Amino acid sequence: MIELLSYPFMQRALLAGTLIGIACAVIGTYVVLKGLSFIGAGIAHASFGGVALGFLLNVNPVLTAVVFCLGTAWGIGLVARKGHVKEDTAVGVFFASTMAFGILVIGLMHGYNVDLFGYLFGSIVAVSRSDVWMILGLSAAVLFLVWVFFKELLFVTFDAEMAAVTGVPAGRIYFLLISLMAITVVLSIKVVGIVLVSALLVTPAAAAYQMTENFRRMMALAVLIGVCSSVGGLLLSWKLDTAPGATIVLVSTLIFFLAASVSPRRRGLRHGD
């Protein structure tokens, strides 16, 4: 194990996995409590179009994915709020159209691009030094904004209407939240891939939700589970010679089922019956 940690690529992978585990858990806490999991999945798949566009234009795919996902998140929010349709309907529209756009862009490229399809399933062991710095910067920005707007985000998560009545700009805070979701999704696709990133956003927080009803404690537990899933999944994948992204997600899923099996909520329901 000590020898494994001496490899620079593994050091970068562990650092990237830890940062993403923290960021996903923090934002995922709001996502789970506010019921935005489907929006997270829609944004995750929208990133495929942004990544493909980056390869087509020969620019950093992560930068185009950030812009693309932010546009998708805001589009979902605007259509849901101004278009008189439900959020899940808006997500369905953008989910299909952005994936179709990505496929269209792939058709405009010449030949098969391995790097592009690497984003679909993740490549944490291929994370470069520049990737680590980018993940660090984006994670720091996300966590800083959560810290600054912690009370407002908490209020809007539990009761948006009351928050608006008391003077909190609920609409702006909602768009801030889905923007943070979009950024978190993009910084995570290098680790677990577009296909699985929504699971890393939701599962650690969902596991923590099984164990406590206290918001701060739930967020702390989600961070612990997210980091353990990322680091443990990476090391386990090396040991078993399996896909790192898939192993990370499966480890977090296993933790979720373990938490659900011993959940105080479940015991409370049984006693209530």
Q: How many strand elements?
A: 0
Report the portion of residues in β strands.
under 5%
**Which structural class matches the secondary elements?**
mainly alpha
Main sheet makeup = none
Give the radius of gyration: 19 Å
- Helical percent range? over 70%
Q: pLDDT below 50 for ≥5 consecutive residues: which ranges?
A: 269-273
- Give the helix tally: 14
Summed over residues and divided by their number, the pLDDT gives a mean of: 85
CATH superfamily: ABC transporter involved in vitamin B12 uptake, BtuC
Q: Based on the structure given, which CATH architecture is correct?
A: Orthogonal Bundle
Distance between the termini: 48 Å
What is the helix/strand order? HHHHHHHHHHHHHH
Describe this structure in words.
- With 273 residues, this protein is mainly α.
- It has a single domain (2-260), classed as ABC transporter involved in vitamin B12 uptake, BtuC (Orthogonal Bundle).
- 84% of the residues lie in helices and 0% in strands.
- The protein contains 14 helices and no strands.
- The chain has helices at residues 2-5, 8-34, 37-57, 61-82, 87-108, 114-121, 129-148, 150-158, 160-165, 170-192, 197-211, 215-240, 244-261, 264-272.
- It is globular.
